């Protein structure tokens, strides 16, 4: 958690420095003042609204215990076992099976599941997925990953400038779209490097192991990951910019391993995760 806090502070400080330096180079003293104001505003938006960006991109909504008592029971049991506060629960109406967590702290944490996930997994497998998300909350991964997603989205949003930059004839409707695509080829890898540098694949391995220790059932999570991997190939999420820059928050990569989806792939290979979980089960003598 200490490392996550330092990395988060470094990301925000780097963003502030870049904004201030850019404004100063463009407009001198006045630009310096504007840069300071812009840095404060952008940092506030990133910190306070970074956790809601993915929820909005996934069209997620909060759900009550009356609506999904089975899900609430599983989350409450595991949160109690882990001695963590009960997170808020959200549901995303998509057939793509996945789950993710977001939030600035343990007490403001959110766990979101898709309808596809809840219909695909049995309770044993669902417990493994929820335990994995609780492990990210316990380690303080959520704030770092949420801020990385927000910063990556800000970088990718620079492609929206293509609307203001005419290309070719005024009647050519493909001009802005073409320029937007060209800009994404430039800023997309930068955003992807930010996400990969902030997240790191080792986080998923640690969360998998912590989840297995919490449930005492590595095979349950391994089976869930296998089903999610197959489901992601059958029902991938649309490669929208808001979803691309948030894909690292999810328990498994939700896009095809080609094109833009591959660029933002920050998860370790699912077969390797399953192999490690099965090795734990063998070591612990569980099936």
Question: Key features?
Answer:
287 residues, mainly alpha, 66% helix
Q: How are strands sequenced across the largest beta sheet? A: 1-2-4-3
Low-confidence regions: 162-172
Oligomer: single chain
Rg, rounded, reads: 20 Å
Q: From N to C, what is the helix and strand string?
A: HEHEEEHHHHHHHHH
- End-to-end C-alpha gap: 32 Å
What's the tally of helices?
Answer: 11
Largest sheet: 4 strands, mixed
Tell me roughly what share of residues is in helical segments.
55-70%
Strand content: 5-15%
Counting DSSP E segments of at least 2 residues, the number of strands comes to 4
Label the structural class: mainly alpha
**Could you report the average pLDDT, rounded to the nearest whole number?**
80
- Rough outline: elongated
Descriptive notes:
It is built from eleven helices and four strands. The protein is mainly α. It has a four-stranded mixed β-sheet, with helices on both faces. A hairpin with a 7-residue loop joins strand 3 and strand 4.
Topology:
Blueprint: H1 2-57, E1 61-62, H2 69-82, E2 88-92, E3 99-102, E4 110-114, H3 115-120, H4 123-139, H5 141-156, H6 174-199, H7 202-215, H8 218-234, H9 241-244, H10 259-263, H11 270-284
Helix pairs in contact: 1-5, 2-4, 4-7, 4-8, 5-6, 7-8, 7-11, 8-11
